[in-house]
Amino acid sequence: MPYEIKSSPDFAIIDYTLADGESVVAESGAMVSMSSNIKMKTEARGGLFAAAKRKLLGGESIFQNTFTAEGGEGHVMLAPGSPGDIISFDLADGKSLMIQSSAYVAATPSVTLDTKWGGVKGFFSGTGMFLLKATGPGTVFVASYGAIYPKACEGEYIVDTDHIVAFEETVTYSVTKVGGIKSLFFGGEGLVAKFSGNGMVYAQTRSPGQLASFLHPYRPVKNSN
Fold it and tell me: Which residues contact 209 (CB under 8 A, 6 or more apart)?
């Protein structure tokens, strides 16, 4: 099941080659193009209850699309909604990756998706109280806003919560403030995630929240007169 990630890191797209009978599962709306012999099936993976749980807690779509090649080799191209990079993770059997819910793009059918409690403070930090947990065996594709940069956490490492993309299950994090009260409200950093343990952390070079703040002064304002 070969694939190629093209146009990285600015406008990355997955070019997937499927052998006859092979499949790939993608988030709703991720399909860009596909061969005429690719059949798409829309379903709530794991059942409606499990899918609704991922939607309510993890922010993932209830329904996902499974693309299967029939009658020969086929190609499907998948991309996230925002401009940026895509990275793939080959997960061994039973190994998991924690993913920011908005970063999930696609996975092989053998990968299991679930939600994991991320703490109440995550609600105020921008990470959300729940994360997606992808468990192997299989390959999962994760997208970012901007480029993705990996960082090895060896003990402790701090990442702005708005820049978190994914991290290995061998590290844990707690949400805290980066400085004092003045820094929290006037320093422009807000809350951060302090990672602990030994493992990889993947962050994005751009922040959706900072983009929204940058565009806010330019929004059209309706004159009430």
Answer: 126, 162
pLDDT digits (tens, 9 = 90+) for 75-119: 999 999 889 999 999 999 999 999 987 899 999 999 998 887 555
**Nearest CA among 164, 172, 165 for reference residue 198:** 172
Instruction: List Cβ neighbours of 225 (8 Å cut-off, separation of 6 or more).
Output: none
Percent of the chain with pLDDT over 90: 57
CB distance 84 to 145 below 8 Å: yes
Taking phi over 0 as left and psi of -120 to 50 as alpha, with beta for the rest, 101 belongs to alpha
Tokens encoding 206: 């751009």
d(CA 100, CA 112): 15
Residue 181 has pLDDT above 60, yes or no: no
Is 3.60.160.10 the CATH classification of the domain at 3-216? yes
**111-125, 127-141, 163-177, range with the lowest pLDDT:** 111-125
118: number of Cβ within 10 Å: 23
